[in-house]
Amino acid sequence: GVNDAAALKKADIGIAMGRDVNDVAKEASSMIVLDGNFASIVAAVEEGRAVYDNIRRFTTYVLTSNMPELAPFIMFVLLGIPLPLTVMQILAIDLGTDLVPALGLGVEAPEPGNMSKPPRGPREHLINPWVLLRAYLWQGGMEIALSLAAFFYAYLSHGWIPGMPMAGAGPLYAHATTMTLAGIVACQVGNVFCCRTARQSIFRVGFGTNRLVLIGIVVEVLLILGLVYVPFMQSIFGLAPLSLGDWGLLATFPVIMLAGEELRKLILRTMDKKRD
């Protein structure tokens, strides 16, 4: 009623209950629960937390791939090696392979234990230092190491040894940059599962519970196969066909990404239990 308006206005989120709420109370409220059911408030909070977390998942996934895209240019400048990734190949990641898996993270179900967390501070930013550390330093660092390992593997498999000049053009260079691109895509396949949860193990949530993520991975794999094996796509993006041995190496990248992220989550869960 009218007497509640001051309290509703002062509350962080003023909630008016029922259809017959006084107009003054409605104006002072942030939310009106039409069915008058307190369970609806709980459901709304859970949905709001899920939406917020999904935006963070999406952001973390996209930011992570920025690191292996940036590192080749730093290596090119500081070490004088051939550029491990071209601008066109970066566009293939950002506008192609990353798109659908990232969208899949936007419809992820609430993480188990989501409602047991304390409320976040009203001044907390969506992209906070922990999100940046996770995306840039931890997951991004793993992607840098793996994608550059794939780049140097291409040279090593053709007889190159450290100290020798590295080909900056021709079939060998195309093979090496293809390995870098495919390595980033392989890492992102593992990374999309890493980003589905912040603390809980993906094995508890289940790999097949988000169908759009699975569809995104299929699209991602088909796109990289098209880029690598369709002749006119090869010429546009400067790529070369990969062998079964190359794909065997790349297939380990999602597993390594998952293993590293599961270790981080296990440490966080252990620390949470000690605090409790």
Description:
The longest helix is centred in the N-terminal third of the chain and has 42 residues, at 38-79. Helix 6 packs antiparallel against helix 7, helix 6 (129-156) packs antiparallel against helix 12 (252-275) and helix 7 runs parallel beside helix 12. The protein is built from 12 helices and 2 strands; from the N terminus they run αβαβαααααααααα. The mean pLDDT is 90. Helix 2 (23-28) links the parallel strand 1 (15-17) and strand 2 (31-33). The chain is mainly alpha-helical and 276 residues long.
- On the 0-100 scale, what is the average pLDDT? 90
Write out the strand line-up for the largest beta sheet, numbering strands in chain order: 1-2
Task: Spell the H/E element sequence.
Answer: HEHEHHHHHHHHHH
Spans with pLDDT under 50 lasting ≥5 residues? none
Kindly state the number of beta strands: 2
Largest sheet: 2 strands, parallel
The secondary structure category is mainly alpha
Separate helix tally: 12
Query: Helical percent range?
Result: 55-70%
Shape: elongated
Q: Name the beta content range.
A: under 5%
**Distance, first to last CA:** 41 Å
Question: What integer value in Å does the Rg equal?
Answer: 24 Å
